[in-house]
Amino acid sequence: MNATIFLTFLLITVSIGVISWYKTRREKANTITGFFLANRNLGFITVGSSLLFANINTVLFVGENELVYTNNMSVIAWGMTSVIAMLVVSEFIMPIYLRTGIATTPDYLEKRYDSNTKKIVSLIFLVNYIVNLLPSVLYGGAVAFNGLFHFSDHYGIDYWTSIWVLVWIMGSIGGLYCILGGLKAIAISDVLLGAAMFTGGILLPWFGLRYLGNGNISEGLAVILSSKTEHMKVIGAAGDAVPFSTIFTGMLLVNLYYWGTEQYTVQQVLGSRNLAVCQKGIALAAFGKVLSPLLINIPGLIAVHMYTSMQNTAEVFPRMVSDVSPSLFVGYMAAILFGATFTTFNAGLNSASTLFILNVYKAGQKSEKQLLHIAKRFEIAICLLAMCIAPFIIFAKGGFYNYLQTVGGLFSVPIFTIILVGFLTRKVPPIAAKIGLAFFIVAYGATQVIFDTGIHFLHILAMLFIITCILMLIIGRMYPMKVPYVREMSNVVNVEPWKGRHIYSALLVMAVIAVYVLFTILS
After folding, report:
1. pTM to 2 decimal places
2. Contact call for residues 423 and 449 (beta carbons, < 8 A)
């Protein structure tokens, strides 16, 4: 193992940890609000960085670069539609959450439907975290680190064993950090990692192009623009990993769910000191998503011209970083990848324990200190479960990223559907939400496991979304609530919106369009 790489990685990682500890050493995380919501006192830079790094992690670094290498740039649609979804969430959904004073997204379902709906959705969230989110983040981190540090080669162990070892190392460190620091420590780390990521996003393509051009960046760019240009295609055809038509169906729904309903994402925003800060933070994160292809897509495009074939295509990104970069930068990128892995992992752990303590566990007469103790023990339990499941993702068919999105659909759009119907109606009863959830989950699971429909899973999600909405509305018409729902306001922060949000929203939409136009011209 290259000593320079390891020492650089260690120095940066320890520095981020020490700074995060220093900045939070006087913060009180010994209450429920302090531990889970950072005392609702986060600024917009912290909120934006936390949102971005709750999303950008090794799953994206590994998964999206792999799809660019094996298919094309159509996978960029996930990030670009995220920007549109974030703007919608910022304008219409977050004001509702902050005005009602909720601590978790299922809290809204309790207010709109009933406590049983809240518990059911909380349990669905928890299952998703345990079998999908947390294991995939650990697996992506293990793949990336094995590719950067070559553990399996250096120690003479097989690939499967090295993934197990790395998963358990990363899970243990991440879990310990989360348990000791809470949301505030995670948020401070994200700010530092955000600055590091933007620097890496500029330098990595520069190193890659210089490598392709034998020291000349212009010649490296000429190589990409003159050969294998089919990999630059952003308008995906029906047979591509991400057909362009899916942007307007299931993909938009998944992103609306992710940015507006997913607990571990929304929790980063619920800690905002007011609505204006919340909306500024979302705009900052959206800007980060516009720039993110520099790290999660362009390296895969460069790798197309470096490797004619790879035994394990999931290692495209870490291998490319290792081959084109000087040792200091490899260590720098390793620190970013490590940080991206455990901040998302920690956000998931923190949100899971929030859901469990506030929505599932019957607290009785227990004090806040006792509840925090139980929350931390719960985090340890699900951390261990995720570490056991993660290595088995190696057997997923169709690529790591496709696996993640396909399985995620089982949990995401059903929840978003009942929340959206709750937002838009006043008389749809709780039984409609329960029937809608059950129908959607069973029907989608059947199309992915039992019946081969030949239809892209994102289109299926959109179809089921429409059918479920109609089903819930019919139930609401036949068995309406006797007392129509009235939204109760319980402002815990100032809910005056950010006055400049529309200008920044327009600029961000134009930036998304520009990305598509640019790559369409180049391909």
Report:
1. 0.85
2. no
